[in-house]
């Protein structure tokens, strides 16, 4: 009887170990599945937010380029319009105050337009330079990682 009792105890222990292994594997599989699901959802949210930011940045850049194109077009048309005009002698002071006011208004408007154009130019340049800077940083980081790998070997 002792041998039979020992054998049954051995079989029960073996089954308990197998059951605990199965439970452990199932629980870890379930946790991993939940983790991967959460990670997938987080990646989707991040991608949506990054796409939103990229669209907003794209609209800014398109607006800036539009301002630049409009300024260049105005400049070209203005130059084209002045080519055929004969040079008239200046008329004496008839309405100097009115013309001074109009001139001040045009100068202020021109200054504001130039500021908008300058802002647009800076934005387009910053976009171009940031892309170059990112590529340069990526190259430097890659070189640094390669140097670390060669030093650690």
UniProtKB/TrEMBL annotation:
Keywords: Calmodulin-binding. GO terms for biological process: regulation of transcription by RNA polymerase II. One of its GO terms (molecular function) is calmodulin binding. SMART domains: IQ. PANTHER family: CALMODULIN-BINDING TRANSCRIPTION ACTIVATOR 5, CALMODULIN-BINDING TRANSCRIPTION ACTIVATOR CAMTA. It comes from the Eukaryota. This is Calmodulin-binding transcription activator 5-like. InterPro entries: IQ_motif_EF-hand-BS, P-loop_NTPase. One of its GO terms (cellular component) is nucleus.
